[in-house]
């Protein structure tokens, strides 16, 4: 049968959320879990597809939902409207991420003691916040993520290994932001690495990204290279 998936309803307070877990039944028993954090539009076929790819590598992948069951953006304006409250209240964002991690750990396919998180764009910021809050995860991967610090994690120690995959020409995360992130993670004692791809903008793993004026452009080369680096990183975390 190989690839399997199901929808998972969970809650953060009164908010009903709907994630999606994917696994490959060629692999037996609980296996490392990888949380997949979505971009600003909400959980979509893009994130679900990334989760399926991870399942094929032997992980149980959980595509989270930050906005609520059935809540999705359909335009840049709607996407921004959904994302902005979480950027304005990072404690609220971090609580919802904890709820998502908890939901993933409860899935029978997941080894709750071996978990990591990856995220794209806004989701990249999310997984960095998971690390910044000191959550007990093996590692996080921010993929063309936003780097702005939350303001409520100063003085924390980061136990998760951190990988940032970054387009050097990303207007949403400039070289100044890159240096600030490096300094922040160093001060927090993190085991961190950053791979920057030249001549590469934001959203470089998304084939639908083709808006140079916004700085979002797909790059097949950077997409392939970043996937390889991420795969190697996960293998390092879990001894694959």
Explain this structure to me?
Helix 3 packs across helix 4. The protein has one domain (3-238): Alpha/Beta hydrolase fold, catalytic domain (Rossmann fold). The chain has 240 residues and is α/β, with parallel strands linked by helices. The chain is 35% helix and 27% strand. The mean pLDDT is 97. It is globular, with a radius of gyration of 16 Å.
Mean pLDDT: 97
Principal-axis shape:
globular
State the assembly state of the protein chains.
Answer: single chain
The H/E string reads: EEEHEHHEHEEHEEEH
Q: How are the strands of the largest sheet arranged?
A: 1-2-4-3-5-6-7-8
SS field, number of helical segments: 6
CATH classification class: Alpha Beta
Strand content: 25-35%
Runs in which pLDDT lies below 50 for 5 or more consecutive residues are: none
């Amino acid at each position: 049968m190989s690839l399997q998936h199901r929808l998972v309803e969970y809650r953060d307070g009164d908010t009903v959320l709907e994630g999606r877990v994917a696994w490959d039944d060629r692999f037996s028993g609980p296996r490392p879990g990888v949380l997949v954090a979505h971009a600003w539009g909400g959980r979509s076929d893009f994130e679900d597809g990334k989760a399926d790819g991870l399942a094929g590598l032997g992980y149980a992948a959980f595509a989270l939902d930050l906005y609520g069951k059935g809540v999705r953006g359909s335009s840049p304006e709607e996407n921004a409207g959904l994302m902005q409250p979480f950027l304005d209240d990072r404690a609220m964002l971090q609580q919802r991420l904890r709820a998502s991690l908890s939901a993933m750990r409860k899935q029978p396919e997941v080894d709750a003691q071996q978990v990591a998180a990856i995220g794209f764009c806004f989701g990249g910021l999310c997984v960095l916040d998971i690390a910044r809050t000191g959550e007990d995860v093996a590692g996080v991967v921010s993929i063309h993520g936003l780097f702005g610090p939350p303001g409520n994690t100063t003085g924390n120690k980061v136990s998760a290994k951190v990988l940032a995959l970054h387009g050097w020409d990303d207007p949403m995360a400039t070289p100044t932001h890159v240096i600030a992130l490096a300094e922040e993670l160093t001060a927090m004692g993190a085991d961190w690495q950053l791979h920057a791809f030249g001549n590469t903008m934001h959203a470089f793993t998304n084939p639908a990204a083709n808006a140079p004026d916004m700085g979002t452009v797909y790059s097949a080369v950077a997409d392939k290279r970043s996937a390889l680096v991420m795969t190697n990183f996960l293998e390092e975390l879990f001894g694959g």
